[in-house]
Here is the input.
Amino acid sequence: MSKDRIYGLLMFVGSLIGVVVYGWLMFMTGYGILVLQISVFLVVAVVLGIVAWIGYTLASTPPPKPIEEIEKEFKKTECQTG
Here is the structure.
């Protein structure tokens, strides 16, 4: 069996175990509200983290050159080679 199939099988089995454990924690113990609060917090934190990463990338990336400059450079190199 290839490594990809083994990793896929481990991910599949791990996910099923995670669903069972999550369901057990939610409905069979007294920690349902706490588990729900932690779950929602993690989802919101991940989404806001992705938004922050996108914002940082937009803020720290230099703006592209205007199209006129690119056209001038293209014409300049075209005249030198042509």
In short: The mean pLDDT is 91. Residues 3-81 form one domain. DSSP finds three helices and no strands in the chain. The chain has one domain: 3-81.
